[in-house]
Amino acid sequence: MTTQVRGVQLARLLGQWHALPGRRRSPDYAALAGAVRGLLADGRLPLGVRLPAERELAEALRISRTTVTAAYRELRETGHLASRRGAGSWTMLPGTHRVASTGLWTPLDDRDMIDLGVAALSAPAQLVPAARAAAEDLPRYLGGAGYHPTGIIELREAVARGYTERGLPTSPEQIMVTSGTQHALDLVLRLALSPGGGVLVESPTYPNALAALAARRARITTHGLSDDGWDADLLLGSIRQTRPKLAYLIPEFHNPTGHLMAADLRERLVGAAHAAGTDLVVDESFVDLPLDGTPLPPPVAVFDRHSRVISIGGMSKPYWGGLRIGWVRASAPQVQRLAAARVGVDMASPVLDQLVAVHLLDQAPAIVTARRAQLAAQRDALVATLAERLPDWRVTVPCGGVTLWAELDGPISSALARAAEEVGVRLAPGPRFGLDGTLERFLRLPFTLPAAELVEAVGRLAAVRYDLDRAGRPQWREPSVIA
């Protein structure tokens, strides 16, 4: 079922859509059409959504219907709108704007390369002692086969305890350990989503989640995030209208925007999902990384009374990506079904890695506190350098997580990524976080590297920013990993 945007909703998204006072004004219809194209390019207005009827939008904007008619006609002419008499008009992009699901350009090995494509920290100092302690614990497991599809009991107890401390009572039977958060998502999709099933995601969202959904041939609809995060009316309306089988959301320090979903919206979200028959897959990868003392709302699953919420998380972001430990929190019967599905994939996670994770979680207060202080300092250094070297770029400073979502001074994200590689900076351009060529005016910038490297990276970006028009012929490169 196609999502429909009501007139008042689109009017709110459009905001101040007229030409600025004091400048040469475009006709109102052209300004309106340009504003809609801007919403599409930014991913705030999804593709394939039905726009309000001309009369409805005219009333919401308090303009003449003639103006709206002319704007819709221009959007059809530019390939941004498809209309059928008696059925309405749907948003789209011109055919030449489609972007494949893979495609970063990876340079040859270069020790001077500053990699801003991966939003992950290096290992903490406690990792090596934890590995030594885990090796000493290993002998007690050697008498068995070593296959634990739901995970070793010590780790499941530790993860369950973390949820309980956050106000969500959880037993070890509700936890399944996986080989990272991405593996957790893949298993959930195998169990809960049939090929071709409908899924709602945010725009922008995590690229590897889009890849996992593409592998399941999911029918994806999007909810565009604004500068303030989720529009409750549009998000809940999308769930009610499209009734997707799943909704994949990142409410804790959203990747890549850094937004934090408010508690009241979490409660309303669960209610809407239950009414629509939608399961919520909640990615909590960044929940351990609030900065500046930001208080965390209750977990989304706190409001779940009908086993509609499946939470996934892991240790890649607060601890180390090389430790492939993730987990699923769901009802005990769901965990058992996931374990049965897992046997046909990878049997179980490595016992030694799980023991390392147990020892790291025992030291969580010290490790996570240091991580938060480190990230806050690096974030502030990155924000200050951007303001100095690239003042035309706009960023909203996140109160947690590991990334900035920068609005550039033009739709140059992919071109900038190609040019940046030539000066030793690897980027994750905006279109990698959306669908069908949107988000070219945006760029994800993680602040997981040391401050000195972030400052150097911004300096290199500033040096190439104004030379894009004279860039040489691009070279084909192998796709890189975004994390």
Tally of DSSP helical segments: 15
Spans of at least 5 consecutive residues with low confidence:
96-109, 472-476
- Based on CA atoms alone, the radius of gyration comes out at 23 Å
Average residue-wise pLDDT: 90
**Into which percentage range does the β-strand content fall?**
5-15%
Q: Strand count, sense and closure of the main sheet?
A: 7 strands, mixed
Q: Estimate percent helicity.
A: 25-40%
Q: Output the strand order for the largest sheet.
A: 4-10-9-8-7-5-6
Q: Determine the oligomeric state from the structure.
A: single chain
Principal-axis shape: globular
Polypeptide structure, described:
- The chain is of the alpha/beta class and 483 residues long.
- The chain is 39% helix and 13% strand.
- It is built from 15 helices and 15 strands.
- The strands form 4 sheets. It has a 7-stranded mixed sheet, with helices on both faces.
- Helix 5 (127-137) crosses helix 12 (351-362).
- The longest helix is centred in the last third of the chain and has 26 residues, at 364-389.
- The protein is globular.
Could you provide a short overview of the structure?
By secondary structure, the protein is α/β, with parallel strands linked by helices. It has helices at 7-14, 28-42, 54-61, 65-77, 127-137, 153-165, 181-192, 207-215, 232-242, 263-276, 332-342, 351-362, 364-389, 413-421, 451-465; strands at residues 81-84, 88-91, 114-115, 175-178, 198-203, 219-224, 246-249, 279-283, 309-314, 326-329, 394-395, 403-407, 425-426, 428-429, 442-446.
